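Escalated from tier 1: DQA holo job.
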Amino acid sequence: MAKTNARKILVLSGPNLNLLGQRQPEIYGTDSLEDHMRRVDDAAKQFGLETQKVSAQSAAELVTAIHSARGSCDAIIINPGALTHFAWSLHDALASFSGPIIEVHLSNPATRETWRHESVVAPVASGTIAGFGADSYVFAVHAVAALLAKKK
Ligand code: DQA
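Tier 2 regenerated the structure:
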């Protein structure tokens, strides 16, 4: 495949998101992670952006992917799943990344159990998009495109 100069988004999915579509559909909907990633790709294509996707069940794997993105990706979209609420290693890894970072949630954690109200990722994210179901990911791609356009 020909090498392009297109800007690249690393799209990270944390634990249990591989079960989207089967897991608590009344909260997370019936679309699979693959369905969401297809929509991310479609949206990214509209802006001439490339994507690289990593779905991981542990903070360690996500931290490794973030380290690899330093110098090779221009932005990060991350749904850290439950790691959102306590994984300070993710916070520190994301703090080492210099491009736009969008935190995404399908549900709105602020309206759920109190342990979901804190995000340790939010302080190092450019912004958070939560509560829009499948559209959350699409909005995140739009946010990345807007932020990268300002950095030209
Ligand atoms: C989630 C919200 C988290 O609180 C939860 O642990 C998830 C999914 C969301 O996309 O709504 O696994 O990140």
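The two ends are 26 Å apart (CA to CA).
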